[in-house]
Amino acid sequence: MTEKRIVVVGAGVAGLTTALLLSKKSGYKITIAAKHMPGDYDIQYASPWAGANSMPVSVGGTDAAEWDKNTWFALEELARHHPDAGVHFQKANIYNRKKDIGSDTAKWFSELLSPDPWWKTLFPDYKQIPRTELGADVDNGHHFTSVCINTAIYLPWLVSRCLENGVVFKRAVFSHITDAAARGVHHSGQAADVVLNCTGLGSRSLGGVADELVYPARGQIVVVRNEADEMVSVSGTDDGPDEAMYIMTRAAGGGTILGGCYQKHNWESQPDPSLALRIMKRCVKACPQLTNGRGIEHLDVIRHGVGLRPVRDGGARIEKEKIDGTWVVHNYGHGGAGYQCSYGCAQVAARLVDEAGLEGEKAKL
């Protein structure tokens, strides 16, 4: 088979993971062309702002559940055998309050908070938290060992693995998805055979895609130097239906993430000081260890951050289509699950690239 020229548009976790999997196959020459790269912090670039961890929120029996499952095994392997990736194991406690039913955060977490979740078999130490260990307003809870990802290490790690496999990186901005197939974009100088669309929220405005089902779910976090032994997450808060409470400590000195919110259709890029204060109060109350039982003034703040989760009504889009004569494989719209479904989604996208390449070969015969 003639070597196929692939251009991946987008260098977030979806684009990097898909490029990495493709780079392990023979027969592909890959260029990643993106406006933002690891090391950038911009509101248009969601991946650096993520927590990130693995807490399945997909519905059992769906494609999304399969993507989460396949990704968990990959992340577990990294945490166990590749400390340079910035992924480590961390105990997790998830608490469900029935009074949060119907809120945006509870809808987001709905499967995570099921009393009998499909994903419990993924985690060997999974157990229901005994009623005697739950707070008065908590109805059920889960305990298991998950992973937390230091995105500042993990994204560059993905880049380095891609570079080892011959992937070329370049900065580029496109107004139409097929522009990425034009001569001069791929590092060979020739037109691309297949374009991968991993533009996340950008797919809403990108020509040739213009997917109006994609919208932001704004998240706001506080990153602190204080450490927590365990991840903690609650189905909702008493401060509003789109506010959340979660804590996770990143690997390799990456700080502890305090969150958060799930504000649908909110494009605001600047942190809200009032929300930041509520986040810190909720997290210190839920995890007094953060400040050794003292107040929020003893939090050692690194920075405040805002990210826009690329949510898509109907779920992530992973499919291929021909646009103006160019094969395009889409992999976007993962919402707040971009890391925990990254490998599973990339596996599907890579297979679609294979299919598009074979169809291109047949068309030449």
Description:
- With about 375 residues, the protein is of the alpha/beta class.
- The chain has helices at about 15-25, 65-80, 105-110, 150-165, 275-285, 340-365; strands at about 5-10, 30-35, 85-95, 125-130, 140-150, 170, 195, 215-225, 230-235, 245-250, 255-260, 265, 300-310, 315-325, 325-330.
- The strands form two sheets. Strands 3, 4, 5, 8, 9, 10, 11, 12 and 13 form a nine-stranded mixed beta sheet that branches.
- It is globular and about 65 Å long.
- The two termini are about 15 Å apart.
- The mean pLDDT is about 95.
- Keywords: FAD, Flavoprotein, Oxidoreductase.
Write the layout of secondary structure elements.
Layout lengths: L3 E6 L3 H11 L4 E7 L28 H19 L5 E10 L7 H5 L18 E2 L11 E10 L1 H14 L3 E4 L22 E4 L16 E11 L5 E5 L8 E7 L6 E6 L1 E2 L8 H14 L14 E12 L4 E7 L2 E7 L9 H23 L1
Parallel strand pairs: 1-2, 1-7, 2-6, 3-9, 7-15
Antiparallel strand pairs: 3-5, 4-5, 8-11, 8-12, 8-13, 9-10, 10-11, 14-15
Helix pairs in contact: 1-4, 1-6, 2-6
* Biggest sheet descriptor: 9 strands, mixed
- Report the helical percentage: 10-25%
Give the end-to-end Cα distance, rounded to a whole number of Å. 13 Å
Which overall shape is indicated by the principal axes computed on the Cα atoms?
globular
Which strand-content bin applies to the residues? 25-35%
Order of H and E elements: EHEHEHEEHEEEEEEEHEEEH
Overall structural class, as computed from helix and strand content, comes to: alpha/beta
Q: Helix tally?
A: 6
Q: Any idea what the radius of gyration is?
A: 21 Å
Number of strands: 15
Low-confidence stretches: none
Overall average pLDDT: 95
